[in-house]
Amino acid sequence: RKEGERSVAVHCSMFLAALSFAYFAKALSGSYMKSTITQLERRFDISSYLIGIIDGSFEIGNLLVIAFVSYFGAKLHRPKIIAFGCVLMSFGTFLIAMPHFLIVRASVNSSNLLSPCLPGIAPYYYFSDCDRDSGVSMWIYVFLGNLLRGIGETPVQPLGISYIDDFARPENAAFYIGTYTTLLLVFYIYTHLKNSDYYPRDARWVGAWFGYIISGVVTLMSAVPFWFLPKSLPLPRLMRLILRSDLKSRKYDFVPTLKSLLGNPVYILYLCVTIIQFNSLIGMVTYKPKYIEQHYGLSASKANFLMGNINIPAVALGMFSGGVIMKKCKLDIMGAAKFAFGTSLLGYFLSLFFFAMGCENARVAGITVSYTGYFLSQLYERSLYADCNSGCSCSRREWDPVCGRNGITYVSPCLAGCTATSGAGKNTVFERCRCVALPDALPLNLTAALGQCPRGDSCEQVFPYFLALSVLSSFIISLGGTPGFMLLVRCIKPELKSLALGIHTLATRTLAGIPAPIYFGAIIDSTCLKWGYKPCGGRGACRLYNTSAYRIVYLGLTLGLRTMSFFLCILGFAILKRHIRMEKKSSLAEGSAEQESLKKEESSEQFILALKCNADRETRL
């Protein structure tokens, strides 16, 4: 028996390693996708709303096959189904990288198109071959690739976790799943970028696509171990007999099974709570790098670097620690529910301090401040023209920001009144900028450099506190992740496990994964102050946000959704207590029934023995 248990533990560890590597590969491409949201907006000139639709295509792919995979996958060879899904994920990741090879490198990334002030010349728009050069329609490759990734990822979580939970000892399942969800979050990749004439802080910067190629190769490699894993793990003889007798008595009719699952009030309420919290989580995670970039003035690369190297490891450590705590403390269902609720509530209160960690709007001439440096009472694109650039024939459509020596950002060198340039590429300096007002400065010293001006010292001082609080709150909230997930596994019958996990994934993907990035993006778009324009005309991506409004709607929506979930949690505790009492009563009733049946068997055996004794006595007589 001990050898059988040791064999099960070894095989569970092997499967866990393969599953963790598969989810690492999935998380690698998924996190890279979210980290390039700002780059996708710039490359395809699309709004955050449309980016939300592209991001939600992953969940749409899940939605297409999740019910089929979860119900029928439990009866088939689960490791091979996961392997096939990994192959699909890799193909989808390669498809996302296709636009990089199909689109000619955009000529707008050259500093030669940055027009200085040219008096008496009307603005010229580059509309020739705009359909070919803009690559606007190429975002469909990203949409389809992400859709294919969603289809391929579908079997990994429900079949993988049910496989572990079926063959692991109950007290070790939480530790295995905690380890698995920890490695789910350990993802970050550094890609070597080619030398360029521009740099990440430049508004025209479009990041590299090589991460998709690397993550696609890693995902393809993750499929290999699953082709060699068995359909089921070896079990001790006693456990095999129990499973065989259970399988014979189990009914696989889909409708009665689904009816039994949906009739569980604890499961339904758990589903509602997780849907609301996933809306908050997915919307927050999708746009958090963009929030850091827009609010604190960091470049996209640095914002994603901080997310990948500081925030995400804290979440991974929290998930792992939660699994260890549940194993060491041997938490039951109620204990796991209380622990998950307590950590989530504590993280919620810590997150309220984010409202106080704000920065003022960027000082952009004609949008947030006047050309003399005074803040405008109403923020919108209304006064880009001033006396200093009145004779320059500048376009309002351009967004090529330059930073003046006075600390004010100008929408373009032309609107800054610059009439000369020096240097090349990212070292370009615009000179004789009439709108750059400095006291007692010679016209030659009125210069501007590429990119937006950095935020003030107060904003730089606030950001470390924001980062520290973000790490702390993420760690505390993630502590309850594994106990909360084990609550889902333990509140249902074992034969309904795969279907319950599949329905849970289906519901969260459909009602959270798809809509959350879309309506978060639409609300964020409402705070835009300066829209870009596509090469062929029409509104493009947002170039400048009202950071105060952005902070209020982003944090307010995130925490508002979590507030709603807490009210449902209070109701859930009452239902869970009743559920536990009913289970205890039913187990006691079953125990008394078993005792009565045993007594009847004993009495019948005694009766047979008595008859046998009487027969022997009569024979002797």
TrEMBL record:
Keywords: Cell membrane, Disulfide bond, Glycoprotein, Ion transport, Lipid transport, Membrane, Transmembrane, Transmembrane helix, Transport. It catalyses: L-thyroxine sulfate(out) = L-thyroxine sulfate(in); 3,3',5'-triiodo-L-thyronine(out) = 3,3',5'-triiodo-L-thyronine(in); L-thyroxine(out) = L-thyroxine(in). One of its GO terms (cellular component) is basolateral plasma membrane. PROSITE patterns: KAZAL_2, MFS. GO terms for biological process: lipid transport; monoatomic ion transport; sodium-independent organic anion transport. Residues 15-566 form the Major facilitator superfamily (MFS) profile domain. It is a multi-pass membrane protein. The chain crosses the membrane at residues 7-26, 46-69, 81-103, 173-190, 210-229, 267-285, 305-325, 337-357, 462-489, 501-524, 552-576. Gene3D superfamilies: 3.30.60.30, MFS general substrate transporter like domains (1.20.1250.20). Residues 382-437 form the Kazal-like domain. It is found in: Cell membrane. InterPro entries: Kazal_dom, Kazal_dom_sf, MFS_dom, MFS_trans_sf, OATP. One of its GO terms (molecular function) is sodium-independent organic anion transmembrane transporter activity. The keyword Ion transport applies. PANTHER family: ORGANIC ANION TRANSPORTER, SOLUTE CARRIER ORGANIC ANION TRANSPORTER FAMILY MEMBER 1C1. Belongs to the organo anion transporter (TC 2.A.60) family. This is Solute carrier organic anion transporter family member.
